[in-house]
Each structure stands twice: as C-alpha cells, then as structure tokens.
Amino acid sequence: MKKIAVIGAGIVGITTAFELASTGNSVTVFDHNSAAAEEASFANGCVFSPGFVTPWVAPGLPKALLGKLFREHSPVRIGGLGAKELSWISKWRAACKMDSYLVHRSQLHNLASFSNEVFKDITGKLNLEYENSKGFMVLYRSPEEQKNAQRMLQTYNEMGVPLLEISAEKARIIEPALNLETQINGGLYFPEDGIANCRQFALLLKDECEKMGVRFEFNSAVKPLSAAQPTLIQTHNGQIKFDAVVVCAGVSSAEILAPIGIKVPLLPIYGYSLSAALRESIDAPLSGVFDDRHKVTISRIGQRIRVSGIVQIGGAPKTHISGAFNTLYKVLNDWFPGAARTSENVQEWKGARAMLPEGIPLIGACKVPGVWLNIGHGSSGWTLSCGAARALSNLIDGRLPGTNLIGFGMSRLE
Ligand SMILES: Cc1cc2nc3c(=O)[nH]c(=O)nc-3n(C[C@H](O)[C@H](O)[C@H](O)COP(=O)(O)OP(=O)(O)OC[C@H]3O[C@@H](n4cnc5c(N)ncnc54)[C@H](O)[C@@H]3O)c2cc1C
C-alpha cells in the first residue's frame, strides 16, 4: 500500500483516485476549487464515443482549418497568438502527417476501447445511475464533407470500430426530430457509443472514492512541485510527504511540473457549451449528433440539451470570444429547432481542453521518481478517463498496464 497524492479532482483525477484506492492505496485528492469537476469536466459535450475518438492531427487539417478561419461560423477561432501558441502550433503542424497520425489514432483507439471496458466494469459493479443515452451520429451536410470523411472509413474498419454508414433517410429514422429543412448528405452512426453525463459520473465516483477512504482536500491549490522533494505536496494549509504524486491538473499541469524539470507543451484549447432545458421532447435529439461542418455536438442530457464546440487558440480563460455562442445557437437551430428553451436560464460555459501537439495524452512515469502523469487528454478526456486511470494505477502498483501504453510515455517528448 502506498500513500499517494492526486493533484486535480476533474474526471481524470477522480477516476485515478478511484482505481488507486480500489487496490488498497491510501489516496488524498487535492483541488483548488471547492468541489469536484469544476473545470474542463464541468459542462463538456458529454460524448462518450470510443469509436469516434481521434487525435486532432489529421494530415491536411491545418490547411482545412485555415481555409475556414475567417468564415462567420468557423469551428476555429483565434483569441490571441503569443510565443507559446506559435510554438505549439508549429509542433502540432509537424504532427499532422499521415504516418504519425495513423499511429496516434490507433494508439488512441486502443486506449478508448480499453476505457470503454473499464467504464462498463465500474458502472456495472457500482450500479451507478447517471444521465446517458445510446447512439452517436456524425452528419455531413454536403457531398464534399462526406467524401473527405470516407477517406477515413478504411481506418475505422481496420480498427474494428462498430459503425454504420447511413443515408439521410436512415439518419432521420434514427433521430426523427432532425430538421427537414437542413440538408443531410449522409452520415456515420456509432450504435454502441453515446452520451453520458461526465460531471454527474465524476460526482458519483467521488462518493464511491470517499466510501473507500479517499480524502478530498478542496480549496487547496497545490504549489508547483519542488526539485528537492518532488513528492512533497505544499498548499496554504501546510505540507505533506507522499510516496507518490499523480499529476491530473488539466491545463495547470505544466506549471506544476516545471520546477522538477519536466517540460510538457500543454496548451489550453478553449471550447464552449450551452445547456438549456428541454422544451419539446418530440423536437429534441434522442442521443448525440455531431455537425461535421461546424464541429459542434448536440447532446440530450436527461431533461436538458447541451450544445458544444468551438476550438479557440489563445486568449483569456474567462473572456468569451465574439460569436462563439451564436454558432452554437445556430447549429442547434439548424438541426433541432424548438428543442430547447433558449430564451431563459441557459447555462453558457467556456472550458479548456488540455492539449498536447500530438493530440494524445501522457500517461505514466516521468523521469523524476515518485511523480506520475495523467495529463493532456484534449478533446476526449471523458471518454479516455476510466482507461487511462486503470492503466496508470496498474503501473503505479507495479503491474502491467492492462492495455498497450506504447506512445503515451514521456519518451515521445525527448
Ligand atoms: C467544450 C469542451 C467539450 C468537450 N467535450 C467532450 C466530450 O464530449 N467528450 C469527451 O470525452 N471529452 C470532452 N471534452 C474534454 C474533456 O472535458 C476533458 O478532456 C476532461 O474533462 C479533462 O479532465 P481533467 O480531469 O484532466 O481536467 P479538469 O476537469 O480540468 O480537472 C483538472 C483539475 O485540476 C485542478 N487543479 C489545477 N491546478 C491545480 C492546483 N495547482 N492545485 C490543485 N488543483 C488544481 C482543477 O481545479 C481541476 O479541477 C471537452 C472539453 C471541452 C472544453
């Protein structure tokens, strides 16, 4: 049994604490917020789609995004470009090559499939009740969009992803409320994937952690680790020595690791969501729909609709970039007009995806003994969280990870 500190009570920190406590470790979770899942894990798209998970480093992506940058409802926005952003973009562009993309995609897919198994194992054993729905659909508005996607179909098939290519008619049968006035050229349907409420799951799992004796220290900002004693956790309440420290601090992980000589090129890639009460169930999606043109997801979360998207590079965490929410309202209205009460009590939210240039997370040991990483899950952290947590916890306990973690280690940055 080890005495372990987990820094961060987002979905990644909570799943990690759960796994570590399940094998008998003594775990304390630190978070600077007053509750769990208050940052990136708060109001994300809630898409749990192991099949659709992909690193954002496809060949041709930089050109395609640049071409859309100045359009009114562009999926990508620039909030400001400093040295940090430019350096990250240059590394990201270098990663947008077919060979590395295919490798990273397959690595991510393996992890996502493992995560799905672990997720089912946890929810089954604990009987957790959380908002969820089955099925995830990607919609293409034009023949060109569909043609672009078809290039990737072979990869999906090679990886054994359960999916169906669907016609507009079939899409409208699966999601009967889709607006007849918005053109559909075709789509992909992932019948085994779906929507699951990330924050709700995180809070339920936190309760389970507490039942196993995990301590949660909220309102406790952990200071950057010290080179002299890397496993000493220091907060304004004092300091505690641990056998091991697991960094799960989302976008803040880089500054926590910097003093011990670990440099990770993490960039916050901001995104937005709006959540509104269901107005008419008959006008609403049954599960999740992704608009490929605008890269926006519309999810049914219990009695609410959540619309999520936008990739914002640079800018301040709390400042909303002009037009971001307009795009989300527009896409909702394009596909499901009348589904949500958008005139009152809409929760508008901005969060940060902690993104590494290769688009896949870092999971494992770092060169400093006792310090472990579970960071950089980017746009799919919810889907990957359970698998990343179990694999890392296996490593910390001295076992094999349970899935292939080649490519997720620090060595790729060296
Ligand atoms: C708009 C948007 C939509 C998304 N949609 C999806 C989706 O549909 N499906 C999906 O799979 N993923 C999605 N994601 C990604 C997913 O939300 C994230 O990858 C995931 O939530 C990351 O979890 P985390 O625990 O690593 O980070 P966080 O949830 O950000 O948790 C990090 C925690 O660390 C704490 N912390 C930071 N610094 C310190 C410190 N010094 N001391 C103490 N505590 C600290 C923070 O308070 C925070 O609670 C989306 C993200 C965004 C922004």
Describe this structure in words.
There is one protein chain. The strands form 3 sheets. Strands 3, 4, 5, 6, 7, 12, 13, 14, 15 and 16 form a 10-stranded mixed β-sheet that branches. This protein has a single domain, classed as FAD/NAD(P)-binding domain. Helices cover 32% and strands 25% of the residues. The protein is an alpha/beta fold and 414 residues long. The mean pLDDT is 95.
Low-confidence stretches: none
Stated plainly, the CATH topology is called FAD/NAD(P)-binding domain
Rounded to an integer in angstroms, the radius of gyration calculated over CA atoms is 21 Å
How many domains, in number, for the residues?
A: 1
Helix count? 10
What's the architecture, going by CATH? Answer: 3-Layer(bba) Sandwich
User: Share of helix among residues?
Assistant: 25-40%
Major sheet characteristics: 10 strands, mixed
What's this entry about, in short?
The protein has 414 residues and is α/β, with parallel strands linked by helices.
Can you tag this structure with a few keywords?
ten-stranded mixed beta sheet; binds flavin-adenine dinucleotide; six-stranded mixed beta sheet; FAD/NAD(P)-binding domain; 32% helix; 414 residues; 18 strands; 25% strand
